[in-house]
Design a protein that fits this description.
3-stranded parallel sheet; elongated
Amino acid sequence: MEEGVIYGSTPSPQVPQQNNQAAKSSIVSYAQSQTPPPKPKPKTSKLKKILLIFLSLFLLITVVFSLIYFISLRSGEEATEKVELVWWGMWEDEAIPQSIITDFETKNPNVKVKYEYQEPAEFKEKLIARTDAGRGPDIFRFHTNWYEDLSGILLPLTSDVITKEEFEKNYYKTAQRDLIKNGAIVGIPLEVDTLALFVNPAIIEQIKTEKELLEIKLPTNWQEFIETTETLTTYDELGKIIIGGAGMGSYDNVNYAPDIISLLFAQNRVDFDNFT
């Protein structure tokens, strides 16, 4: 046995400090990297889903019926609102249109029509002045040659009153030309005043006998009218007319005599811009 050597238990090996710290670090890192599992969602029963659907439908139906009720209520208020319409006339006495007014008011109990007679001589000027002042009538008659003066106050008729197709079907071309402006109907004809030829057969037979004529042809155009008029005219010894071949009236007893004369001139191609 060698000196200086002591025999005993075998010493335990020492664990390196560095490796132990690394192991602890790995355990901590692994623990921190783990996220907790999500919480389970609460289960909704089928009964709750059905109740939610029915509740949504109930709310929707309630809103719809509320809107319908509100709209019908407003419509009822508008239908029962009292309205007064002022109607101006210039030839009819108040008693004449009363039957029309009564019938209209019976069918429309919320509307009252007030008829007012106006003097023809001042009708147009009064109509324009009152309308400009905001006190004009709602309904009035007017002559078609007033359109240029009244164009600023005439309102187009809506299709629920009369459509353009109905107007063209029921009224003469002259009414369509005068009352349809820019595609809009501005009035409905009360009457159509046209020229017409009336013949007195007794006078014709008398002239035929006196002048020993076989036949007097009734005119179908202006040239024949002139010729027939000359044939029917009779004179006395002094050349004065006893019976006129045509009675055209005068400015004193014919309404709108200027219109008639202008029409005769126009049909004979008179140049209104040059009377020389």
